[in-house]
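Table 4 source record.
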Amino acid sequence: MTLESNIHLDLCGGVAGEYYVSFKDQDSHIARFMEQCAKTGVKRFIPIVQIGGLESHQWVICHNPCGYGEIEARGPMQYNEYGTKSPVRTLVKRAHERGMEVHPYVHVPTAGVWSPSPGSPVGEFYPLGFMAEFASDHPEYWTKTREGLGFADLPVFEHRKGNGYSYLSLAYPEVREYYISLCAEIVETWGVDGVTLEFVPTTYVDEKGDWTAGYDRPAIQAYREKCGVDPREVDNSDEAWIRLRAGYWTQFVRELWLEFTKKHPDVAIRAFETGGASNPDTSYRRMLDWPTWMEEGLIDVFYPSFYLRDVKAGSMRVPSLDPITIGDVTSRVKGVAKDRCEVYPLLNIYRGRGLGQPGDREKTTEQLLHGAKAAMGAGADGIGVYRADQIVALDLWDTLGDIAAGNF
């Protein structure tokens, strides 16, 4: 049975908790999870599928016992959220049987992630990281700083507190083609209803909140031709230099839209905003020029993100799950989107390892309901919630049902 809901509700994450995918009984677990989502009123499920889900776009485990610098060894990932025998096709089938859509999300242009060691001081990292095989094979495509350093060349203390993200450069046509082929294969392999892009430009951010990477060969040459000077000789915040770098990210979205328009015209393109780029006046300075994406009709749904915790991305504080903040940001984003793109504020309640403590359920329920009410009151077209494992851990299904029904 599917709940007749008043509000479009999207749930992001993986098949989690008691429904977690087991290789012995994948179909049963997925079917029960999709049934629970449908009963709650979820309209779309948005899982991450890129990490190891496709053999042609595999991720690997990278080993570097010295900390950073050249990656010394690698091997195929032995385990990931969906396994090498991905059950996404089953997930799509079970969702469609219940009137739900599936719109997997992929990280762009994240090359890989290096994780901090549990219990160790901030800044200490595992010698293991997860990296796209394409990125491991092509370090020449990693984005660089003004000094010509890639992610693996930077000392640990230069990295963002928390996970360390490495990035490929969208200035290279080969990188844009890689991500376009990844998105296309997700659609063609699993028959999903759309693809959601998640951009996480948080590792390279200066005290002004500007992106400090992107000093890559094609961009440097283009700036020289346009402005007659090497961009390494001007301030990182130079308007023309920032606009030029952001233009490559927009070019990727534009090329993906063109590819889908030709080959998959019924497949939606959605985009998450993460890391404090929800201000339409300054988002391009973090490379996310989503107002242009909306103006050109390149995306169907946009998700400005709001966080349960007090989070900083570089020097920028990201929007919190405060009703006033949610209302103000949603109103501004919707004012840019108009009727060209739907806006779904993404309420991020993920708590990291442990997924919560006693008493968190009541507080999180209140934050979700107040946040959803503020967003819808500000003109949102629907609500997104991140992540599914947190919903399962705190048993917040009834709260999702209230959001879907508009019971604030």
